């Protein structure tokens, strides 16, 4: 599937209703939270290093969303947190999640030294591990993490 990854500058201008409904039907509440917190201004992904992306297919349908926040749970400097990461069910296992994650990892270089994420899904566990994340880095509210500087060094070696 040919897709276009575009930064979302203003979520209020994007129709996310289908994805929100689909995610809620699957039992995920975090896209509803994304919309609510965007509307009340508590999380608009606009701090330094933060970014929110949408992925559109060739019919201009929004098929995925994913964001990067400064980690609100950690006191440690330089920790970013992947959040609101969701690929529509009929767009899964086609590499879209990987593309979106790679874009976010690229953006995170220079702003963050490590990224964390929290998930309790085994599919997401497999996905993050397939993309270089390891288990718990010992940071709060996180199940997986990746050290960016080390990744960077590996590439440079
Ligand atoms: C987890 C999720 C983001 C994966 O996105 P995706 O676009 O399907 O992932 P990709 O196609 O890039 O998968 C890359 C690799 O990850 C692994 N993987 C992804 N989904 C998997 C699954 N359901 N079971 C096992 N391995 C999986 C595989 O190794 C896969 O490579 P392969 O397809 O060649 O075997 C997607 O399933 C999703 O949005 N799920 C619901 C919401 C969610 O759990 N979000 C994460 C919350 S933190």
From TrEMBL:
SUPFAM superfamilies: Acyl-CoA N-acyltransferases (Nat)
Pfam families, sorted: Acetyltransf_1
Signal peptide (residue range): none
PROSITE patterns: GNAT
UniProt superkingdom: Bacteria
Matching CDD domains: NAT_SF
Domain N-acetyltransferase: 6-157
Protein name: GNAT family N-acetyltransferase
